[in-house]
Amino acid sequence: MNLLIVFRLKPQWHFTVSVILLSGLLSSCSVFEKTPEPTTSTLPEKDTQPPKIHLNGGDLIIERHQYFTDPGATAMDDFDGRVAVKVTGKIKTYALGEHSLTYTATDKAGHKASVQRLVTIVPASTVPPLNDTGVNWAASYPEGNAETCQGELADQQDCAHGRNQLYFTKLDAQGRALPKHAKHWSCIKDNHTGLIWEVKTAKATGTDLHSREDQFNWRNLMWATNGGATGYRNHDGKICTGFVAGKEMTYCNTHAFAYRVNQQGLCGFHDWRLPNLQELETLMSLDNSRLMIQRQFFPNTRKGAYWSSTPTAFDKSYSWHLDFSSGRDGISARKDELYVRLVRTARPGEAHAD
Amino acid sequence: MPINHRIRYWLSCVLVIGLAQTAWAQTCKTKNMLAMTPSDEFKSHQNGTVTHLKTGLMWQVCSVGQRWEKGSCQGKANALTWQQALQWPAQVNNTKGYGGYKDWRLPNRKELKSLVEFRCYDPAINLKVFPNTPSDYYWSATPDPESHYGSFGVGFGRGEFFSDYRDDVYQVRLVRTATAP
Predict the structure, then answer these.
(1) Which pTM value belongs to this model?
(2) Looking at the structure, do residues A258 and A137 belong to the same domain, yes or no?
(3) Could you tell me if B105 lies within 8 Å of chain A, comparing CB atoms?
(4) What ipTM goes with this model?
């Protein structure tokens, strides 16, 4: 055993010795001497300041029974550089009200800094306020579809009622509202439903966290909402961006995906979740028969089913999905590979709110 | 007991259990699923109408064909073609109205879907708010853009959308816009 350690240390010693020799040579040679940088002169002789802690995401509002992802914090010390942050506290997402996490960082001189993150647990989403179906044309009986809202009984049909328009706002990567004709946006806010949606990108799977091609197995660790089974951790391997075998939080399931997005943040938010089926349905717009979604706001939508968070009450190995190419919903086995579009609820007082 | 009497006895037992099950057939998963349409998100007007506070929609508690009596729905719901379903609100609105209002209409597919209680099935609806709702298919006012013959509806057995021929007959529940949400 001792022999082994000596063998292991030996090359390192060689390295250290050669580094000392080399640095001695260099320092003796005035050509390599650097003039001191101005920043070094402002560095204090002694470390008197505690580290500064930066909270990713700040205070958070999380829905009851959602999995809580801590977006983390970083700490910088003027003397020691980056220092480790310790987190204490626990977020009990089953309990409504205020919870907190305390982030502590200590530098080598023993100066301690701490910052609190307030996490407020609010009731879970149910049915959102509704928007329009997008239908602006009438049907005839027993067959035929018109181009406009005219014809027999048209005044009784969908096209004659409701708001008859959808009202979306594009948001940039920081969550700020963009003008209507902006060419690049990261999220969409639906001003009728109060929901903010992830926007998918045209990038290929493996190159972007929000790739339109990424697919997932259904998974939910929260027993109050998972229908009685957690679903699948890794049924299909590499079907999404970031997959690394053996690293659970890189797996292609809906739980791990929401975790990754909340770690990184999207449009400055860290409370993304899988939409329930009622929320997902509000994205339907039936004015385009090829793909029933407003594609000028939600580009890169795929033909095929998107997962909802809604379990099926009659079989815990299934969950509900919605397909924007057929306009139908249905149930899929949780081990199936489906697309995902994450959502969050806009909160009053948010920076970008209206 | 003679053998044929015994068989008859057991048959009647099975029949009674079978009937009891059709009357109390709803199954709800209360442990591992949250309610999508909890009763406290509805305001009853005690006159056969109820307002869904999340959507601002006022609904008739009973399906077309049923009568609202003593807080529940009596009688059998009527099955109508899509055309009849579209015509029905006018018959209500042009006579005495319902619940004091004369602007009832057939709900669109998003509105109809918003009543589905996914943690229950057979039927997938909150029976405390909408008592005696049959586990049946209901028409929406939304035609199917994919089909020249079809319109959408919701199956309240499990809560899924369907699209079917406009001359097929399904149940109807009327709605009106109470407050702009």
Answers:
(1) 0.86
(2) no
(3) yes
(4) 0.87
